[in-house]
Amino acid sequence: MNNLDLQYQHLLQDIILDGEEKTDRTGTGTKSVFGKQIRHKMSEGFPLLTTKKMAIKSIMTELKWFLKGDTNIKYLVDNNCHIWDGDAYKAYSHKDDLTQKEFIQKIKSDWKFARNYGELGPIYGKQWRKWAPVAGEINKGGVDQIKELIKNIKENPDSRRLMVSAWNVSELPLVVLPPCHYGFQCYVQDGRLSLLWNQRSVDTFLGLPFNIASYGMLLLLLCNETNLEPGELIGNLGDTHLYLNHLEQAEEQRNRKSFQLPYVDVSNVDILHGEFDYEVIGYQSQPAIKAPLSN
User: Fold this and answer.
1) CB of 274 within 8 A of CB of 217?
2) Can you give the pLDDT at residue 134?
3) What CATH code is carried by the domain that includes residue 20?
4) What are the CA-CA distances from residue 197 to residues 21, 88, 284 (Å)?
5) 122 found inside a domain
6) In the chain, what is the greatest distance between 2 CA atoms, to the nearest angstrom?
7) SS percent in the chain: helix, strand, coil, step 5
C-alpha cells in the first residue's frame, strides 16, 4: 500500500467516524472536520490516487487553463473537461431557455455566447497571471504571479516570499465561487523544490484527489523551469468534508487496496503559455467510483 492512498483513506475514515454534520451553500449537507494535512514525498511517485481511477486528462486540462490565465469555460468544454460546467450554468440568468446540457453545447458551438455566458469572473487563472489590486481591473495588466515566482526561485531561492495567492479580497464579489485552494508557497532546500498549498474548503471525495494531482503536476512544471528536483508536496486543509451523498462511496474507497504510485514524465514545457506534454507511466488503479457533484 502506498503512503499517499493510506493518508487519504485515513482522512476519509476520520471524517466518517468523527465528522460533524454541517449545512453548506449547496444545500446537500456535509460531515466535516477541520485542520488536516496531506504530505507526500515526490520521490515516492506521482501523487495520483490508485484506490479509484482518476480522470487524468481533466486534471491536466484544468491546470493548463489556470496557467493560461483563462477564466472562461470554453477552453475546458472544447477539451472535454466539465469540472466547471455546473458553476457556469448556476450563474446563467436564462435557465428557463436552456438545460445545462444545452447550455454547455452552446458554449462549445457559439463563441459569442461563450464570451457572454462562459465567463466565471476573476478566478484562479486571472489571479495567478494578472493579479490586480483594484476590483474590476481585469483587462489592465496586473502582476503575473507565476512569472514572478519562477524568477524569484531562480534568483533568490532562500526567500520566504515564494508565494502565489488566489484570494484577492477586492475581487471576491465578482467570482462565481471564491477560490477553495487559495494560495501556495514554494521552498528550496538542497537542490529540491517543495510546494505547500492552502485550502479553505475541501470536497474530500471528488475535489481533493484532483487538487493533490494538480499541485503535484504544478510542482513538476516549476522544477522543469528552475532546474530543481521535486521535493515534498504538502496540503494544508481547512474545512475538510464529505458531502452526505458521498458517504457510501467514501466508505467503499477507504476499504480498497492501493497500488504502487505511477511516475510522470513532462516535456515541451511552456508554463507561461499553459502548455506542456506529459506521460503517465505505470498507473494501475481500482475502478472509478461515481458520485454527484454539488454546485
Assistant:
1) no
2) 63
3) 3.30.572.10
4) 26, 25, 26
5) no
6) 58
7) 40, 25, 35
Kindly report whether the global pTM for this prediction surpasses the value 0.85.
yes
CA distance 233 to 195: 5
Residue 140: predicted pLDDT: 61
Helix axes 247-254, 3-18, angle to 10 degrees: 140
Q: How many CA atoms lie less than 13 Å away from 164 in the CB half-sphere?
A: 32
Write the pLDDT tens digit of every residue in 63-108: 999 999 999 999 999 999 999 999 999 999 888 889 999 999 999 9
Is there a domain that residue 135 lies in?
no
Look at residue 100 and tell me if it is in a domain. no
* DSSP helix/strand/coil, 72: strand
Contact criterion met (CB below 8 Å) for 173 and 186: no
User: Which grid coordinates are listed for 203?
Assistant: 470536497
- Please give the pLDDT value at position 132: 86
Report if residue 76 sits inside a domain: no
Would you name the residues annotated as active-site residues?
Answer: 180
Q: pLDDT value at position 94?
A: 86
The structural domain count of the chain equals: 1
Question: Residue 199 is part of which domain span?
Answer: 3-71+147-281
User: Which three cell numbers, joined as nine digits, stand for 31?
Assistant: 460531515
Helix (H, G, I), strand (E, B) or coil at 173: helix
Residue spans of beta strands (DSSP E) within the chain: 20-22, 30-41, 163-165, 181-189, 192-203, 229-243, 263-270, 275-281
Q: pLDDT tens across 138-164, in order?
A: 556 789 999 999 999 999 999 999 999
